[in-house]
Amino acid sequence: MIRVILSKLRGEAAFLVLLAVAGAGAWLYVLFQQVRADRDDAVHRAEIVCARSGVEWGATDTAARGVLCARHIAGLVAFRADADQQTARLFAKAMADASARTVKDNQAARLAAEAASAAAIRMETADAEAERRNLVDREWLAAVNGVAGLRPPAR
Amino acid sequence: MPAAAAIERPLPPADLMACAERPAGLPEDPSLIAQIPTGIRAGIIRMARAFRTNADGKDRLVNWLAADSCPAPAKATR
After folding, report:
1. Concatenated DSSP letters for A45-73?
2. pTM of the full structure
3. Low-confidence residues in chain B, pLDDT < 70
4. Count of beta carbons in the 10 Å neighbourhood of residue B25
5. Of A22, A68, A80, B52, which has the fewest CB atoms closer than 10 Å, so is most exposed?
6. In Å, how far is B76's CA from the nearest CA of chain A?
């Protein structure tokens, strides 16, 4: 039985080879169609990405396709990094400036308050003395100048 | 994109940025002796105290807006 089938097949060997080659060809053709579809899709997506970045994909020259676009996108990335860095630097400087200003003003306020307080104590004493003697003298005038933070006239 | 730019805050007009005026005060001459009623003495003291408060405050304000524009307050009284 098997032997009969084999002997018949041997007669049709050429046809069988042709059949196998045709099958392989058809399979390759299907594969190629899938690959081409994938490629077209990928190129289409790349075109969309490039258009979003503001530079055309550049269709005419196959070798130059996407070069300008890639350069542009690299530039955008560098710009983003640079902007972030500058921003951080500016914020840090602004915070340091504000802090230094506050420290300086606190110091000035403390000095002024200390001086005013000392002058007020001296004024109290001098005014009590003036009240007692019913006379205003150099000490009282000097104490008033001290309270006002003023110097006496040169002469 | 968080891009920050340093902006110079505009300062008030120059006449407002002047340091507090501190004229010469009362003469401290040993030969000057006077009788001043208590109410007038108290008034003079009030004005002197207010003068210092206002002048020191203005100098601090100007220094806050433009650092080291006005002299720092004196460290201690005489």
Report:
1. HHHHHHHHHTS----S-TTTTTHHHHHHH
2. 0.68
3. 1-4, 74-78
4. 20
5. A22
6. 5
